[in-house]
Amino acid sequence: VYHSSFVEEEGITKACGCPLLPLKSHIKGPAPVSEQDRTDIVDEAITFFRANVFFTNFPIKSPADKLLIYLTFYINVALKRLEGCRTLAVGTKAIINLGLEDIPVPGETGFPFPGLFSLPSSQEEADLFRNYLKQVREETSGRLLSVAYRANGTPNKWWLAFAKRKFINVVLL
Fold first, then answer.
1. pTM for this predicted structure
2. CA 20/CA 13 separation, integer angstroms
3. What parts of the sequence cross the membrane (predicted)?
4. How many helices (H) and strands (E) does the chain have?
5. What is the maximal distance between C-alpha atoms in the chain?
6. Cα angle 169-55-40, degrees, rounded to a multiple of 5
7. What is the DSSP string of 60-121?
8. pLDDT tens digits along 88-108
9. What phi and psi values does residue 23 have, to the nearest 5 degrees?
């Protein structure tokens, strides 16, 4: 299992037990801005996805691993949505529709990993975590399109083949 390199927790805000790690993003949200030349959690999730998706267990070594688990699952869901999309334009539309769906937080129906994150102590914390997840999902979607499709707009079978995998035996209906 490939773990996150973000183990330092000093100065990092948390919501629901999840660190709100910096992102190299232009998307508005609660995440701090990271330097463009540094690796962020989205880079790690995409880089480690094809190896981590084969594991049925994922021991957590740091709070950032929880976010890595969530993003690996999200990439798996996104690839399932892209599986039937034969062009980049159709894939982009499918990803945008996925981004418009409601994002549940711990304690709400539909959250894929009950017990992974702590329950929000207030509505403000729930909203902060929901907004962070929305931002990190949008950023992941944009970067995933650039690897799931080639420069000419055709699907990259070496990525879309992983849509058939179940990550840690969790299935989204």
1. 0.92
2. 6
3. none
4. 5, 2
5. 47
6. 105
7. --SHHHHHHHHHHHHHHHHHHHHTT--SHHHHHHHHHHHHHS----TTSTT-S-BTTBPPPS
8. 999 999 999 998 889 999 999
9. -125, 145
